[in-house]
Amino acid sequence: MENKGHPSIGKIYKHLHDHPEISWHENNTTDYIERLLGKTSFRVQRFNDCPGVVAELGQGKPCVAIRADIDALWQEVDGEFRANHSCGHDAHMSIVLHTLFALEERRADWKGTLRVIFQPAEETIEGAIAMVEKGVVDDVDYLFGLHLRPIQELRSGEFSPAIQHGAVRFLEGRIEGEDAHGARPHLNKNAIELGAELVQLLNNIHVDPMVPHSAKVTSFHSGGKSTNIIPGRATFSIDVRAQTNEVMDELMAKIKSACHALSNLHGTGVQVDEKAQVPAAVINEEAASYLEQGILKVRGEDALKPAIQTTGGDDFHFYTIRKPELKASMLAVGCDLQPGLHHPHMTFDQSAMPDASRVLVETVIGVLGN
């Protein structure tokens, strides 16, 4: 897909990949996107209190929006902690920018409003909510997102019209007791032993086995350098996942009940607080059908695959949780991504990006086409 006067999709990708920025610090990324948009006829909106940019072309109904996440992860790469695009957001931005360029060139083929949301802070599960609160989807009828998929889910050149992300909750807890001498275990409750009991209680939680789910302790910190002290205090983290919002609610109720029971049994405070959450996907069949038709038009039947089900999460789904009237779905892009998402040395087949852009172009024209 060539667009006169615009850099190639590969050149855009290389710039974004080489200049990653973490959540809420995507200022240079925002500047770069704005410079590219300045060469188009799109109306551009920035925010005075956060990174991110919204571009709009056309007017009236219907209104179709495309969302691209723009932040990178902070992780250790070859012994050095730094910002790193290991989740594919650099590709998402590149694909959506070229979609925007192509739809401007094909302006005669559609009517209505096209809005493109370059959203910050997806990795911290905060950006979508911020955009909703800024009103960027208040008048949107259809919302489309996209995400690169691991090689285990899709091969390069394959696409799916929906990603059934699961719900995710991140919990932080604490055990609030007092230390005791190692010779006097009757004077306190060993926080490490309480932690072990908590793990067993989580393992004994049962919900519908037909719905994928898990609840596991992912960090536990207690005690110090003095080995003759029985620690009475601890902090811990719990990662909770479920394929549906209903099962997530059931899991959360059981986890809180387990902590309460443990506290009552031992007379020691066991508190747990929710620090972040991602809802499970709410996929609109009509929106997914437009993506399906876009895939068929660009790549044909052999490339069209069923909806992807994954226990991973994405804050994209906050848009539909907060605005239930939105008709939304995410395009799953096969690109032989490996070893996996969030791996510090993640790689993918970059030749899949132009076709992904074409699919989005045909999808939007399918909705807005004359």
UniProtKB/TrEMBL annotation:
Residues that coordinate or bind Mn(2+): C87, H89, E123, H147, H342
Stored InterPro entries: AmhX-like (IPR037484), Amidohydrolase (IPR017439), Bact_exopeptidase_dim_dom (IPR036264), Peptidase_M20 (IPR002933), Peptidase_M20_dimer (IPR011650)
Domain Peptidase M20 dimerisation: residue ranges: 174-259
Cofactor: how and how many bound: The Mn(2+) ion enhances activity.
Top-level lineage group: Bacteria
Molecular function terms, GO-annotated: hydrolase activity; metal ion binding
Matching Pfam families: M20_dimer (PF07687), Peptidase_M20 (PF01546)
Keywords annotated in UniProt: Hydrolase, Manganese, Metal-binding
Descriptive protein name: Amidohydrolase
Organism lineage string: Bacteria, Bacillati, Bacillota, Bacilli, Bacillales
